[in-house]
Design goal:
three-stranded antiparallel sheet
């Protein structure tokens, strides 16, 4: 199975697309008025599809805020991610999944583990994280926020068992005396 990685999506400036859609609606109104005045039914062959296209086009507008992205899925296939903030128009048939790229904090619960010497201790951590690849966050895990929580707890348990709680003679690092080294190892 191939891993999905983030790629840039095709998009158009939303204001240009909005101008085009408004122009399509103006053309729709012109065709309707012309068809009514001339009593020409053949104009309906242009009017009806144009109205349908105009309404479908509205589904392509999306706004991306700073530090956010939109993952675009077209009929079950990943087609790209919009990371640039602004007003955009994309394929109106795409499903647009919102992903926050902001830095987040995860406060782990206190968990009971054994340190390197088998002594029971209670430990917790504050994990600072952010989504780097929107596509992988959406497609590779069920719920990426819950995934971070589970992985953090597992990493804390593993880390706590690699260090003693306090330093004894001859030991250089411990959970209590070397918080910087422990934090780097956790990272």
């Amino acid at each position: 199975m191939d891993k999905i990685t983030e790629k840039k999506a095709n998009k158009t400036n939303g204001f240009i697309a909005l101008f085009i859609v408004i122009a399509l609606f103006a053309l729709d109104i012109f065709l309707l008025v012309t068809g009514v005045r001339t009593n020409d039914d053949s104009i309906l062959w242009f009017f009806i599809p144009l109205v349908i296209i105009s309404f479908i086009s509205f589904g392509g507008f999306t706004i991306v805020q700073p530090n956010e992205s939109k993952v675009l899925i077209l009929f079950g296939k990943y087609i790209g991610t919009v990371r640039e903030d602004g007003f955009w128009w994309v394929n109106p048939f795409t499903l647009k999944k919102h992903v926050s790229l902001r830095i987040r904090n995860f406060n782990s619960d206190k968990i009971k583990v054994n340190d390197l010497h088998g002594n029971p201790i209670e430990i917790a951590a504050v994990i600072v994280w952010r989504v780097v690849d929107s596509a992988r966050a959406i497609f590779d895990v069920q719920n990426y926020e819950q995934f971070v929580a589970i992985q953090a707890e597992t990493a804390i348990r593993t880390l706590a068992s690699e260090y003693p709680y306090d330093t004894n003679e001859g030991e250089k690092e411990s959970l209590r005396s070397s918080p910087t080294e422990v934090a780097e190892n956790l990272q």
